[in-house]
Amino acid sequence: MSAPKKVVLAYSGGLDTSIILKWLQEEKGCEVVTFTADLGQGEELEPARRKAEAAGVKEIFIDDLREEFVRDFVYPMFRANALYEGLYLLGTSIARPLIAKRQIEIANMVGADAVCHGATGKGNDQVRFELGYYALDPNIKVIAPWREWDLNSRTKLIEYAEKHGIEIAMDKRGEAPFSVDANLLHTSSEGKALEDPAEEAPEFVYQRTVSPEAAPDKATYIEVGFERGDAVSIDGTEMSPATILTKLNELGGANGIGRLDLLENRYVGMKSRGIYETPGGTVLLMAHRGIEQITMDKGAMHLKDELMPRYAELLYNGYWFSPEREMLQAAIDKSQELVTGTVRLKLYKGNVDVVGRTSPYSLYSQEHVTFEEDDVYDQADAGGFIKINALRLRLLKARNQKAGRND
């Protein structure tokens, strides 16, 4: 394979990607195009532009992808109620395919023959990025510096930065207490001070949520409106997808909602400990479950719940662009056609509870479930229903008794 000539780098402007930029220029002899995605991480992105300019980069892309992120990636995932290993709301996983997609788009725009990411060789992100790249451009060259270079320690990185005049923040000169990935859906903190799973994470790790103990003593009530499985309003005010998630983050964070300490199984085989904050996503998941309760048929809901772990694992492992994910998505989206209505939620000291649901497409019939007299349900019918369903159990027991078995 020929050496890459022009590369699109996923660039944050931080120490690692600044070193990668210089390394690509010096060691690979590449022309570098930088791409910085605004996914709602809450950081000022213009310093990334200034740093790229100072490094001699001529083509710099800083793209606000917040609406696309929530509309085309987060919302489809939430229609599935996706949770990896029963708990994780996949905040990092769902951002990677969008970054990969935009990198490939930029590579096509500027005539680049390679893309580059800053993920390490131990984690999941290298897989997620590269599966996305290859799914969208089978012939793209991929550069993964952490799998190639010998800058395998913080000391070597600092020395390389100093040698090449790369700006180093004072807090980067020592060991960082933990690493953070953030976007509009969540924050993820890993490593260093968090590596011992027996030790409780210190309070300073949390950035988007107050502790439940410090949350208000009075509950907050909100109403979330849905159309076809997607949140469209809060308290009757229609908002864009990214605006809704931003508002739910504020409300959830202020009430101590969305903290998770998880020891998860990485795709590459090892276990890792992550501290996640997903305040708005936690509220949104509960609200979506609430509107499904009143609008979805039992069979469809239960089948969807069976599909969910497979769907979540595909996202976690980086297979957003796979045909199997698209097939599952089609089934999930079909199930959401009448998932429309309003859910009332109570937010209080780390908890979010559904306390009311209404829908023009409700399947709930008070006539059928009332404890009072009704004209729509004959309770005597239940006897035959039970006998038919018990038939195989009765035959099984009779057979076992005849065989002298008591199990």
Give structural notes.
The chain is of the alpha/beta class. It has three domains: 6-65 and 93-175, Rossmann fold, CATH 3.40.50.620; 180-296 and 339-358, Argininosuccinate synthetase, chain A, domain 2 (Alpha-Beta Complex); 366-402. It is built from twelve helices and 14 strands. The strands form three sheets. It has a five-stranded parallel β-sheet, with helices on both faces. Strand 11 and strand 12 form a beta hairpin. The radius of gyration is 26 Å and the shape is elongated. The model has no long low-confidence stretch (mean pLDDT 94).
Chain-wise SSE layout:
Elements: E1 6-10, H1 15-26, E2 31-38, H2 46-54, E3 60-64, H3 66-79, H4 96-110, E4 114-116, H5 125-136, E5 141-143, H6 154-163, E6 179-182, E7 187-190, E8 220-227, E9 230-234, E10 237-238, H7 241-254, E11 259-265, E12 271-277, H8 279-295, H9 298-317, H10 323-335, E13 341-348, E14 351-358, H11 366-369, H12 381-402
Parallel strand pairs: 1-2, 1-4, 2-3, 4-5
Antiparallel strand pairs: 6-7, 7-12, 8-9, 8-13, 9-10, 11-12, 13-14
Which key phrases capture this entry?
about 400 residues; 3 domains; Argininosuccinate synthetase, chain A, domain 2; 12 helices; Rossmann fold; single chain; five-stranded antiparallel sheet; alpha/beta; 14 strands; five-stranded parallel sheet
Topology as H/E string?
Answer: EHEHEHHEHEHEEEEEHEEHHHEEHH
Determine Rg (CA atoms, Å).
26 Å
The CATH class designation of the largest domain is Alpha Beta
Report the CATH topology name of the largest domain: Rossmann fold
The CATH homologous superfamily of the largest domain is called HUPs
Distance between the termini: 65 Å
Mean pLDDT: 94
Tally of separate helices: 12
Strand order of the largest sheet: 3-2-1-4-5
Number of domains: 3
How many DSSP-defined strands?
14
Instruction: Please give the largest β-sheet.
Output: 5 strands, parallel
Strand-pairing-aware structural class: alpha/beta
Q: Which stretches are low in confidence, meaning pLDDT under 50 for 5 or more residues running?
A: none
